[in-house]
Amino acid sequence: MLYRIQDKGCSIKIFDLGGEVHFANVILLNKTDLLNEQCVEELGAVLTKLNPEAQIIKTVFSQVPLTAVLHTKRFDFDQMSQSASWIKELNEEHTPETESLGISSFVYRRRRPFHPERFMSWLENWPEDIIRAKGFFWLASRNDTTGLLSQAGPSIMIQGAGKWVDAYPESEKQALLTEEPGLLQDWDSVYGDRMIEMVLIGVNMKKEEVMASLDACLLSEEEETSEWTQFRDPIPAFSAD
Q1: Among the listed residues 207, 201, 210, the one whose alpha carbon sits nearest the alpha carbon of residue 94
Q2: What is the pTM of this model?
Q3: Which of 58, 100, 118 has its CA nearest to residue 203?
Q4: What b/e string do you get for 140-167 counting C-beta neighbours within 10 Å, with b at 16 or more?
Q5: What are the residues whose beta carbons fall under 8 Å from the beta carbon of 227, sequence distance 6 or more?
Q6: Which fold has domain 96-230?
Q7: What percent of the chain is helix, strand and coil (3-state, nearest 5)?
Q8: Is the dihedral of CA 171, 176, 179, 181 positive or negative?
Q9: From-to residues of CATH 3.30.1220.10 in the chain
Q10: Tell me: the pLDDT tens digits for 117-143?
Q11: Which of 114, 161, 106, 153 is nearest to 136 (CA)?
């Protein structure tokens, strides 16, 4: 992770390519003597937003008791895999305490797919105020495959996350719905479980503008009645596997 200080105020840039911040149970915030109190507070708030379960320790010259970082027995994979901020947001466990520092998040949910060309343009012009995003998306040109978006700083990854339940053969679909009856709570009569559900975390994020820009990527009513497979699709290939 990189925290960049500008002449006026603080500017946060997140480089968390391997997801270490999200799965860490102890995070060292070093060189705090070089930052003013506001910057340290803001950075700590960002880290708390990204990983609310981690213990954050402020250090100078990385001086910290070894007992604080070695053999802590704090790591629990099952707990950590469910404590990531984006999962908490999807489960409507919103934590607003960081909003006073300009750090906020919201869940973008829609029951209409993205147009692949417009969504690709949006990805290529990523809003700078979004520092972390993760969730599932529905692409019109790949109607059977669930897309997974994961972004941290300049790293944006798109991959397949299996098939939508509604895309399975009828017998398999009914078996899955019997095993997971909760799926029926959000089941659409036409599109089944297909939907867009992404968590976005940002610093001084202009929520309404971000939502409007994403809405502009959705299929229009006219496009919904056209042949979706004919849309130009510049998004890198991914599969349901």
Answers
A1: 201
A2: 0.67
A3: 100
A4: bbbeebbbbbbbbbeeeebeeeebbbbb
A5: none
A6: Hypothetical Protein Yjia; Chain: A;domain 2 (3.30.1220)
A7: 35, 25, 35
A8: negative
A9: 96-230
A10: 999 999 999 998 898 899 999 999 999
A11: 161
Q: Distance between CA 218 and CA 200 in Å, rounded?
A: 17
Burial (CB count <10 Å: 0-12, 13-18, 19+), residue 80: middle
Q: Using one digit for the tens of pLDDT, what is the confidence trace for 5-37?
A: 343 456 555 554 445 666 677 888 888 887 788
Q: How many residues does the chain have?
A: 241
Euclidean distance between CA atoms 173 and 58, whole angstroms:
50
Which residue is listed with tokens 């340290």? 40
Six-digit token pair at 59?
């250090």
By C-alpha distance, which of 58, 76, 77, 78 is closest to 68? 58
Q: Which two tokens mark 137?
A: 């998306």
- List all residues 6 or more positions away from 83 whose beta carbon is below 8 Å from its beta carbon: 51, 52, 53
